[in-house]
Amino acid sequence: MMAVRLNDAQRELLERNPTLDPRFIPKDWNGGADLDDKYHRAEQAFLAQQQIKKALEAKPTEPKPKRKASKSADAHLFEVMGKAVGNALQPINERLKALEAKPVMEFQGLWKPKQPYRKGSVVVHDGSSWVAKEGGTGHRPGTDDGAKQWALAAKRGRDAR
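The structure corresponding to this sequence follows.
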């Protein structure tokens, strides 16, 4: 192990706490209260580095067919990293699917009785704008029949005179 140069505050700390590893004491630390966080971050970085090193040196434990070539250390590392990235991206993919499942408002122009509309379609009828609450065909906005399918978005104003 490499010798570590320590200042007076660092030496005093090690005398009081002999279980601390001098490698993880920040070089710029002079006895301030921020040691705990910096020490643990350095220690965690070191442990992560050791785990990566072990993963690179480890050989896959799966039985290999006799006639196929074995995986290289790089291939094993890519496999491990691919699984880790896939696991990290899973919540993002689920959120994206949920967002894409929501209706998108899409302007369809004037309402036409025989045209099918999807949830989120926006139409104009009798001077007012309407948004489809559900998909369907033939229900006229602003009527009792159309109340289930359409919601008023903007009521028409008075005619200019």
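Residues 73-101 form the longest helix (29 residues).
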